[in-house]
Amino acid sequence: MPELSQTILLVSCPDRPGIVAGLASMVHEMGCNIVQVNQSVDSEHGDFRMRMVLEGPETICRGREMSSRFEALALEQEMAINIHPEGEKPRLALLCSREPHCLQDLLQRHASGELACEIPLIISNHETLESLADFFEVPFFHIPNDAARRDEAEETMEATLRKHAVNLVVLARYMQILSHEFVSRWPERIINIHHSFLPAFAGASPYRQAHERGVKLIGATAHYVTAELDAGPIIAQDVLECSHRDSVRDLTRKGRDVERNTLSRAVRWSIERRLMVQGDRVVVFG
C-alpha cells in the first residue's frame, strides 16, 4: 500500500461550464482522490475560484508529473493553478512597533503548534519588543522608520525579507504606512490588523474616533494591504459591545482581545491556503 499524501489546489479563471469536471477527470487519471472541494462564483464579474484538496500516493502528489499536468491544463484553459503539497510551510515575517499583544499572540500560537508556518524573523521600527522576540528565540531586526527615512528603511526591509525567503508579511500593529512601491512588490502577501470595524474609522486613532461618535460596538479588521490606506480586501472581522461609560482607554483595552483573535484567524487561514482574492473581496474557504 503506497504512502498517501495530500495536496491543495487553488484555481482561478473566468467562469464557464466544465471547469470542475475537467479538473476531476485529471485527478482521477493520476490515481488521486478528491477529499474536499469548495468553490465560489462571482456571477457579476464572471470569476471562478476553487480550493480542492487531493489525496494520493506521495510519489504523485509530490512528483513532477502532477505539476506538469496541471501547468499544461492551466495554459490550455487559461487558468491560474497553484499547487501546495502537504507539509509545505510558508515563511512569515512579523512587523511590529511598540504594542506587544498581537505579536505575542502570534508567537505563542506558533510555539504551541497552532500555526503551521516558519517565522524566521521579526522586524520593528522600535527596540521595545526585542525582549519578546528573544524569549521566543526569533531573530529581531531593528530598522528605524519614519517619514524622513522611509526609502532607506524600506530598502533595508526589502533586502532582509528577500534574504530570509519570506512568503507572507504580517503587520502585527506595525504603526508605519508602507509606500505604494513597497506594497506593489508584495501583492496579496501583506496582512494588516486595523483596530476598527472597517470601513468605519479608517486611519489614525480609531478608538478615539469611536468614542467621539458614541458607538455601541467596536471591532477589528484583518485585511490585505494595498496602496490605499486601510482599504484592502477584508479577510476577517469581529466586534464586541461597548457603552457610553467606556473611555478611550477602556475601548483600547477591550479591543486588544478582538485585534489579536482577528489577526491570528486571518493568518491561520492564509497558512492553510483558504484565502483567494476575488475582485475587491476575499473568499474564505471553510
Describe the structure.
- It is a single chain.
- With 286 residues, this protein is of the alpha/beta class.
- The chain has two domains: 4-85, Alpha-Beta Plaits, CATH 3.30.70; 91-284, Rossmann fold.
- It is built from nine helices and 13 strands.
- The longest helix has 24 residues, at 248-271.
Secondary structure blueprint with pairings:
Elements: E1 4-14, H1 19-29, E2 33-42, E3 47-57, H2 58-61, H3 64-77, E4 80-85, E5 91-96, H4 101-111, E6 118-124, H5 130-135, E7 140-142, H6 150-163, E8 168-171, H7 180-184, E9 190-194, H8 206-213, E10 217-224, E11 234-241, H9 248-271, E12 275-278, E13 281-284
Helix pairs in contact: 4-9, 8-9
> Could you name the CATH topology of the largest domain?
Rossmann fold
- Helix coverage percent: 25-40%
Q: In the residues, how many domains can be counted?
A: 2
Task: Name the CATH class of the largest domain.
Answer: Alpha Beta
Provide the β-strand percentage band.
25-35%
Distance between the termini: 31 Å
Overall number of strands: 13
Major sheet attributes: 7 strands, mixed
- H and E string: EHEEHHEEHEHEHEHEHEEHEE
CATH second-level architecture of the largest domain: 3-Layer(aba) Sandwich
> Using only CA atoms, what is the Rg?
21 Å
Low-confidence segments, given as residue ranges, are none
